[in-house]
Write a structure and sequence with these properties.
about 230 residues; 2 domains; five-stranded antiparallel β-sheet; 4 helices; 15 strands; about 35% strand; globular
Length: about 230
């Protein structure tokens, strides 16, 4: 059974699979003895708790009786309902915008080295994509600004004291998320932008997976509308 960082696992549960409330799952320490404890995932709304945390499965130890017991990680995630989007609405939060640092030529050769990398100034090394993968050489991300992050029917918007950014859906080439640093990765035809939802000046309670899901749904809706027009 593969061990996993429970905080990263909690970020996958951007919405409780049982009560379907967002931003309510956190890591809780449960005692197994006088001096021993184990990590649990706990829902602040319905009180559901999961133990035996791994990348393969989780066990619901407190919650609806008919759902108690072990289920695969994919099985629990499949129970999370997709975001419901009302036309004309804007979903927003506070995030830190990171951009690719061009000046650095330093390379990290292994995944283990990347995991152990210490933040360098206001930036850090990043492979991109889901945790545990390496799609190429690592890059250095630099924090650019902190401000309002929003998604709407038109695209992704960021507005801070030093930087304003608008990425219409028609210009996007890919979206992804990374769990370790809680990043949403948005690419257009020219640049990669990473939005961090934890860190200085950010609550850290919101998961990048949540914003990935909202972005994915809206981007998908745009492409459907485009095909209908064609």
């Amino acid at each position: 059974m593969s061990k996993v960082n429970p905080v990263c696992l909690a970020r996958l549960f951007w919405k409780c699979p049982i009560c379907q409330v967002e931003d309510c799952i956190h890591v809780h320490k449960g005692r197994t003895g006088l001096l021993r404890s184990r990590s649990l995932l706990h829902c602040d709304v319905c009180g559901s708790e999961w133990g035996d945390l791994s990348l393969q499965s989780l066990t619901l130890i407190n919650g609806k009786p008919e759902l108690l017991g072990q289920r695969s990680l994919e099985g629990w995630i499949e129970m999370i309902q997709a975001p419901v989007w009302a036309p004309g609405t804007v979903k927003e939060t506070i995030a830190i915008l990171h951009v690719k640092e061009i000046r650095s030529n330093r390379q990290l050769s292994t995944w283990a080295a990347w995991k152990e990398a210490v933040s360098i100034g206001s930036g850090f090394f990043y492979y991109g994509g889901a945790i545990g993968t390496s799609r190429g050489k690592p890059i250095l991300l630099r924090a650019l600004d902190r401000g309002r992050f929003a998604v709407s029917a038109e695209g992704v918007l960021f507005s801070g004291p030093a930087k304003r950014l608008y990425l219409p859906w028609s210009k996007l080439s890919s979206i992804d998320f990374e769990l370790h640093y809680n990043l949403l990765e948005v690419r257009d035809i020219k640049e990669m932008y990473c939005f961090c939802f934890s860190g200085k000046g950010v609550s850290g309670k919101e998961s990048a997976v949540k914003w990935y899901e909202y972005t994915r749904v809206l981007w998908g809706s745009y492409r459907i509308r485009l095909n209908e027009i064609r």
